[in-house]
Amino acid sequence: MDFRLTGDQRALQAGVRALLEGRFGRERLRAAVGKPGPGPNPPLDRALWRELGDAGFFALRLPAKDGGVGLGLPEAVLAFEEAGRALLPGPLVATHLAAGTLPGAATGESVVTWVDGELVEWLDAADCVLGPGNAAGAVPVRSVDPLTPLHRVPAGADGARAAPAPGAACRSEAAVAALLTAAEQLGSAARTTEAAVQYAGEREQFGRSIGAFQAVKQLCAQMLVRTEVTRSAVYGAAVTGDPVEIAGAKLLADDAAVRNARDCLQVHGGMGFTWEADVHLHLKRAWVRAERWPTAGEAADVLAGALL
Amino acid sequence: MDFRLTGDQRALQAGVRALLEGRFGRERLRAAVGKPGPGPNPPLDRALWRELGDAGFFALRLPAKDGGVGLGLPEAVLAFEEAGRALLPGPLVATHLAAGTLPGAATGESVVTWVDGELVEWLDAADCVLGPGNAAGAVPVRSVDPLTPLHRVPAGADGARAAPAPGAACRSEAAVAALLTAAEQLGSAARTTEAAVQYAGEREQFGRSIGAFQAVKQLCAQMLVRTEVTRSAVYGAAVTGDPVEIAGAKLLADDAAVRNARDCLQVHGGMGFTWEADVHLHLKRAWVRAERWPTAGEAADVLAGALL
Amino acid sequence: MDLTYTEEEQDFRARLREWLAAALPTLPPRPDPLDWPARRAYDTAWQRRLYDAGYAGLHWPADAGGRGATPTQHLIFLEETELAGAPYVGANFVGLLHAGPTIAAEGTPEQRARWLPPILSGDEVWCQGFSEPDAGSDLASLRTRAVRDGDTYIVTGSKIWTSHAEVADWCELLVRTEPVSAAVPRHRGITWLAMPMNAPGVTVRPLRTLTGTAEFAEMFLDEVRVPVANRVGDENDGWRVTMVTLFFERGTAFVGEVVACRRTLRALAAAARANGRWDDQELRRTLGRLNAEFTALWRLTQWNVSAAQRTGGAQGVPGNGGSVFKLRYSHARQELYDAAARVLGPGSLDLSHDWTPDRLSSLSYTIAAGTSQIQWNIVAERILGLPKGR
Amino acid sequence: MDLTYTEEEQDFRARLREWLAAALPTLPPRPDPLDWPARRAYDTAWQRRLYDAGYAGLHWPADAGGRGATPTQHLIFLEETELAGAPYVGANFVGLLHAGPTIAAEGTPEQRARWLPPILSGDEVWCQGFSEPDAGSDLASLRTRAVRDGDTYIVTGSKIWTSHAEVADWCELLVRTEPVSAAVPRHRGITWLAMPMNAPGVTVRPLRTLTGTAEFAEMFLDEVRVPVANRVGDENDGWRVTMVTLFFERGTAFVGEVVACRRTLRALAAAARANGRWDDQELRRTLGRLNAEFTALWRLTQWNVSAAQRTGGAQGVPGNGGSVFKLRYSHARQELYDAAARVLGPGSLDLSHDWTPDRLSSLSYTIAAGTSQIQWNIVAERILGLPKGR
Question: Is D249 a catalytic residue?
Answer without folding.
Answer: yes
